[in-house]
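Running log. JK asked me to keep both predictions on one page so they can be read side by side. First protein, sequence followed by its tokens:
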Amino acid sequence: MANGMTRIADAPRHEERADGDDRNVAAGIVAGLIGGLVATWVMSEFQGRWSKAVDGYESPSADGRHDARDWQERNDDLNANELAAQAVATRTIDRPLTREELEIAAPAVHYAFGGTMGAVYGALAEVSPAVRALGGTGWGTAVWIGGDEIAVPLLGLSRPNADYSLEAHAQSFAAHLVYGLTTEFVRRGVRALL
């Protein structure tokens, strides 16, 4: 252009990272979101299979294993995703949800959280060498600590951590490792396509 300014269309859409890969936060968010959603499903399946293998437990929650709180249900008949969905409902529609509504709402809470965490991971993986170095297992561990070990009890969506057995914590931790690894695997594949 005559005035020395570059048109937006002519500007580079992303930067080169030192490792030779393109940096594109928007593509990272999309790839991470897809990875997080797939990983949430895989995590739910993992939790359900663990519970069945350990003691034949099948989730009685409104949507069965698709809201992935088997470890919590096995220990205290609570489900943080159902509790969160009910809290949102009572504040927005001024009534509790029916069991049929919970079949949709509880997994929606879980998938919204899993997808959001995947999108955050995808964005951070684009710009942070430390996040890329931690990879999926590091991200899964961070989500487990921040979510299950800190936020869920603080929000009153579960009993205090000390009330749960080592096996319950191990199941939750292992499920989050599965979540993190799956998020990274899918994110990387989708990101290569973008």
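And the second, directly underneath as requested:
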Amino acid sequence: MIFWLLDNAFSTFGNKIYRQTTGIPTGTNAAPELTQLYLLYYELSFFCRSLSKGWSNLPADLQTLILTYLRYIDDIFRLRVGSSPSEKYLYDQRSSGGPDGMYPVLLQNDDGTANHMPLRLTIESGETVPFLDTSVSLKRGLLSWRLYNKREHMFVDGVRLSDLRNFPHIETKLSDTVKYGIVTSGLYRFAMINKMALDFIREAARMVKKMIQAGYDKAKVMDKVVRFQGWNKNLGVWHKVLPKLLRQIREETPL
């Protein structure tokens, strides 16, 4: 099934149809799963080789890597010990007498040529780093996370993308159930992706403000907020958080 999928990837350009013969088409539904399996093969092989030596025989930085290594497609999160290089253990250089690692330093093409360093990394390090749509912080030995919206750092003609409408226009023909359901789904997302209630309140108030300013009926929006039932109890007690959220909305949104 995989070979059939890869051998039958077509796209159009102008009046011609082309068949992709190299690589996995980005828009294919199975592309994320195939990428995950491909990278997992190398990662699992490295972990098995390392653990065969015995856990107590592994250096502290490798133990930390194994315990904290997280990847979703091409986004990797890991903790490192002291001044250990960020790329240590990531590349397998045994063929050239170098250290053992996960990913190959070259891949052989069908025509015999080689791609050197085919899996390159763009590394962000520090006490706070973005990972997927979260900002992860390590302070005093504790992990914390909050929503990370890269649109806040992107501008078009001087306008911050996060300030633009990212929900349906109020006059669209979608039903009110769909349009105002965005409030509920947004609250669910903020409750699950933030570790602190204050971060939830900030993001929720910002969303409500944008929707009301975009023409959404304030009473309907606020009704969705008050009736929200997907609260994450790890953030605190909802009946104490709700008044703070409503107060924040009143302060940011003209009555």
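Observation for JK regarding the second prediction: Residues 165-252 form one domain.
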